What does this fold into?
Amino acid sequence: MERTFRLVMACPDRVGIVAKVTTFLATYNGWITEASHHADPANGWFYMRNEVKASSLPFDIDSFRMAFEPIAKEFKMHWHIADTDQPKRIVLMASKESHCLADLLHRWQARELDGEVVAVISNHNDLRRMVEWYEIPFHHVPVNPADKAPAFAEVEKLIEEYQTDVVVLARYMQILPPALCHTQAGRIINIHHSFLPSFAGAKPYHQAYQRGVKLIGATCHYVTEDLDEGPIIEQDVIRVNHSDTIEDMVRLGKDVERQVLARGLRYHLQDRVIVHQNKTVVFG
Amino acid sequence: MERTFRLVMACPDRVGIVAKVTTFLATYNGWITEASHHADPANGWFYMRNEVKASSLPFDIDSFRMAFEPIAKEFKMHWHIADTDQPKRIVLMASKESHCLADLLHRWQARELDGEVVAVISNHNDLRRMVEWYEIPFHHVPVNPADKAPAFAEVEKLIEEYQTDVVVLARYMQILPPALCHTQAGRIINIHHSFLPSFAGAKPYHQAYQRGVKLIGATCHYVTEDLDEGPIIEQDVIRVNHSDTIEDMVRLGKDVERQVLARGLRYHLQDRVIVHQNKTVVFG
Amino acid sequence: MERTFRLVMACPDRVGIVAKVTTFLATYNGWITEASHHADPANGWFYMRNEVKASSLPFDIDSFRMAFEPIAKEFKMHWHIADTDQPKRIVLMASKESHCLADLLHRWQARELDGEVVAVISNHNDLRRMVEWYEIPFHHVPVNPADKAPAFAEVEKLIEEYQTDVVVLARYMQILPPALCHTQAGRIINIHHSFLPSFAGAKPYHQAYQRGVKLIGATCHYVTEDLDEGPIIEQDVIRVNHSDTIEDMVRLGKDVERQVLARGLRYHLQDRVIVHQNKTVVFG
Amino acid sequence: MERTFRLVMACPDRVGIVAKVTTFLATYNGWITEASHHADPANGWFYMRNEVKASSLPFDIDSFRMAFEPIAKEFKMHWHIADTDQPKRIVLMASKESHCLADLLHRWQARELDGEVVAVISNHNDLRRMVEWYEIPFHHVPVNPADKAPAFAEVEKLIEEYQTDVVVLARYMQILPPALCHTQAGRIINIHHSFLPSFAGAKPYHQAYQRGVKLIGATCHYVTEDLDEGPIIEQDVIRVNHSDTIEDMVRLGKDVERQVLARGLRYHLQDRVIVHQNKTVVFG
It folds into this structure.
């Protein structure tokens, strides 16, 4: 893959934004390989993502940032620029269930993920052998139900030490403390094993079975202080019927969870997701 | 289509049910064209549907019923038998939105539905011309918000007069009174424009838009006294994204509503649905 | 819906295209409501569609065209501009099967299609009553198998008389003569009842049944001289299994055909489709 | 999972088959946990699968076989009975691509597959380390393009030595010799990376890209002497668009391949597939 810079922005909509930004790029001979726009008439905001060949530009990412800053100010942009040569550093968190973790590790090894898995943290030791096969550090941080604070302090320390860009809860099964959610806002991705907002909370497949739904699903979302209420990145479903037991639903659901999490994470790693007012723009 | 009898039953599971029933059928030379079974280990019940060529049997449906009665008693069956030569009589109820009604009428005319549309009832006059094109009686029964009872009394009277087997709320938009739900239990089918239990109640597409879900859906269910809580017959979803406005969702959702309602109704008309403890077995 | 101009173009890719076009638009204060880009690294082409509020521009579509012409020349663009106040004129062609025609007419009446259905042409009279209910002219042009030329001459004449922008073969079941395909290239849309390139030609559901596939599909494509080989606009599938007869496949397939045709036509009517080298870019 | 016997049969349809079989089972107090029937009016055949609690029967599988034999003869059945306590022995064959193999091994370890993976054979050594992590024997059998016979003789020997019940070509990328296909008819399962019959043969994603299809798929089928022409067990598709390169299709296709192969294999391992006249009945 050729090295690119990804310029991602959101700002109040008005005439001339695209002209200004693309003229800026063209002035420096920037070759746009992919461009996505979204103007939301409901809230009056404009969102844009441009992917530009790094080799076509006369400067590195810091000079780009400086040169672009005045335009960003003029339009009151929330923005960032990412360099594909600096892949995001990913910390995976898991518990005992292996399906999501195994899937992400395999995709990472197969170079399907634009990021670097730098560590795995788990409250159990069950998945250590699998993680170490991939030659990735595995940290066992048990969570004491009576006093969870020390464990999460340790988790937070690890996140910092690894200079983590994104934390993925690959069926971690523990609720993160609000402070951590707050500090890492927009940088923690969770997979919930239901089609939210249906069946939030515990044991969603049991809830789905009780209600007799004909499809079960999974939701990939950013973690916020409100459990299962964060901005949704991706969702999908699979058909079930009366003959499926809860165990069948758990098994069928795994395939959906795996894929929804992998797709959602991929969008995030490629800077395709913009969060605004608890919703996402996903330039898929 | 060759005439068949459909023998549908549910009973506590035990050894020998299928043997007894199919030996009964074989004794009379009954040719089974389709058979479906479901044994539910969670509640210990057994469900079965057999479709038998009428011409292969030496008796009509009443004699069949009498001959089968002792077996049904022995196994404590909830059961019924249906004759495809007596198609179910359908009353459609609609409001102003035409998409579900138009779809069902077209399918009925194209002989896709195993039933007879005998009348349409609406609280508005908007769809009269369309209904009358199909040469089906159209009854305008306006609902006075201050006193709905007379309207529903009229509706109930029409349902009786038409010897209705099944009432379909094709986006009727009015909540039926509990007494009517009770009398017609298992005989009123509704289409709700969300993937229940998400977004029950009013304006589900607005709710979906606010939550930022990535799929919207529709649910076909039997009407009970508890609004949007009845046994689910069929559901489906369609993908949406950040660029879809509420109006887009409404438009996209129509296609899902139409199809989910048509499929759910088809299952009901073919005696493929067994309701048990607020859930359905659907022998699709 | 607010009036917009849709500027659609394809040209060899190079630096500065977006900058030039959007600066042009910004110069005249043009408010972009939707923008889509695609740069194809495989063939080195660039495709763009911009939707601009008409009220934000100081000129009508002809002046726009004149003002933009020099830019188009500079970049060797294939381009056109469309005005939503001049909806495309649609001629539907059908045979005896009603499902696609009924669906499109209903969508048109419900204002789901950005176009005007100006006439229906059929080689049979069966659907006349339905078409006339919508107060649309119905032309019965029977096709003599021994000499089809006069019928197609009549069809061509009608297409011209109605100043047709797009012809939709809504299960027309006749092969159009090469000359007509050529004259109307990119303006005739067909629905084929299979997932092309599988089961091209006659009786695709029979072919699908024989092969024992587990999904059946439909394909919406532009008509070219090579039967079933034109650029594909949209496709979809539905699940079938061993218990589905050919008749079941025909019935299930209708739902897919309807939707695929409606979606494909919608893309075309909204100028979202660019044809290039027998493939399409669809800015959906 | 409770131990069951699976009785699977196909025979010319006539009155009394189900009665005879289920009366046989009931006579011995056999508790049916799952039953599936299919009567095919097109070819006049009848197919049935019964799953019976082993503990409810007074005999082992051999006595069952002997006791049932006269009934099977009477109805000219093609039949077999399987014991869930004797899981099928699976040999996986792969090449360099890891996604299908990794997926099946993970599912096997997670006890999602009703079978025992006894060995992996590959024409390359790349996946050895992964396989050995699962403590499964890995056999490297290189194929000499100038003379493939010795390699396939070795493969055949291994299949025999491992007392293999089913061979799975998990992207093996080599064409098996006709003799081996013949000997192992109905016991070799392949995953083809297209929605057959579209894009049979080599490089299906390249073919799909050239044709500009809007969905790509995968097909799980039994291997016969006619390449890509064997009975189809399962298929699925995923949406693509103009922005997807061949590399994107390869990546997206992997998810479909994995799932279609896993589902198809699962059906086979649970004795849910009956092959008849190059088509399958799948009691899913």
Q: What stands out?
A: Chain B touches chain A through 32 residues (CB under 8 Å). The CA atoms of residues 96 and 127 of chain B lie 7 Å apart. Chain B has a mean pLDDT of 96.
